[in-house]
Amino acid sequence: MRPFELTAPATVEDALSDAGTFLAGGTTLVDLMKLDVLTPERVLDINALPLRGIDTGDALRFGALERMSDIAAHPGVYPMISRALLQSASQQLRNMASIGGNLMQRTRCTYFRDVTMPCNRRDPGSGCPARSGANRMHAVLGASDACVATHASDVAVALVALDAQVTLASADGSRTVPLAGFYRLPGDTPHVETDLRPGELITEVVVPRLDWAANSTYVKVRDRQSYEFALCSAAVALDVRDSRIVDARVAAGGVATVPWRLTAVEDALRGAPVTQESFEAAAAHAADGAVPLSQNGYKIPLLQRTVIRALRELTQAEPTEGIRA
């Protein structure tokens, strides 16, 4: 780790008027500083700022510095959010990591984290060796010639499914943007990962009230049971009445360069009966537009099966004989 200057602003105004890299829980930033992936000269410890609080009134509101473990345990938080948080990292890291920092975490692509290798996200124009190299963990959706790295956050998948928004503050004021639009596809500028402008800070996460999201879940498939990033995940909420799906929210993680909303799956589910056949027909659209690489083609059927598994979990539908999800 290289030398840096550390300061601790006392107010949001002080933080926004001071140029530097924001430090909250530090569970991503400090790791990347140790690897020399990030080398900030000035770090602003923002933990003293009044950016906490959990409100489950008209909407779910999380202060950006609320810890992941506290949100996961809070009554009134939708199950898909709690489960996504609880399946993220270890208990110790969840006690440290902030919700705002989690949404801003960088990819776990090994090429990005290895400064001896080229990487367009870290060094624009240097290349993307994952396209022809080790790419088992990489994206099949939303990728480009310049980058195929997956987005790392679990809870961002659930929040995108629920149309969450983030409030961004700067010295010029504040603005609110949909989380789905906050993340940027890599295109030919993969180093520009979000819509965050220079000097802006996430201050709050807002999830519109959706009462039927109480019937929701988050299914994560990974190489080991704990402390591992997703090979594939699905955040699903269902509004079921009289054995028929009235509405649905579905998003996927571990398979795309950003949290990926599965609108075609949602459309196929609306009005469908609660049956295995309906789930299979809807899940067949989960990987629409997917472009596999040499080692990650397995993610296409895995995504479809993960969506079916989440749908069955929420409805207790019986699997068709000979079919597993």
Account of the 3D structure:
The chain is an alpha+beta fold. The chain has a domain at about 210-315: Enolase-like, domain 1. About 25% of the residues lie in helices and about 20% in strands. It is built from twelve helices and twelve strands. The strands form three sheets. Strands 4-5-8-6-7 form a five-stranded antiparallel beta sheet. Strand 2, helix 2 (about 30-35) and strand 3 form a beta-alpha-beta unit. Mean pLDDT is about 95; it is low at about 320-325.
Structural class: alpha+beta
> What does the radius of gyration come to?
20 Å
Q: What strand order characterises the main sheet?
A: 4-5-8-6-7
CATH topology of the domain at 211-315: Enolase-like, domain 1
Low-confidence stretches: 320-325
CATH superfamily of the domain at 211-315: CO dehydrogenase flavoprotein, C-terminal domain
Beta-strand portion reads: 15-25%
Average pLDDT works out at 95
What overall geometry do the principal axes of the alpha carbons give?
A: globular
Q: N- to C-terminal separation?
A: 45 Å
Reading the helices and strands in chain order gives EHEHEEEHHHHHHEEHEEEEEHHH
**Separate helix tally:** 12
Bin the helical content: 25-40%
The CATH level-2 architecture of the domain at 211-315 is identified as 2-Layer Sandwich
Count the strands? 12
Largest sheet, strands/sense/barrel: 5 strands, antiparallel
Quaternary structure of the protein: single chain
CATH class of the domain at 211-315: Alpha Beta
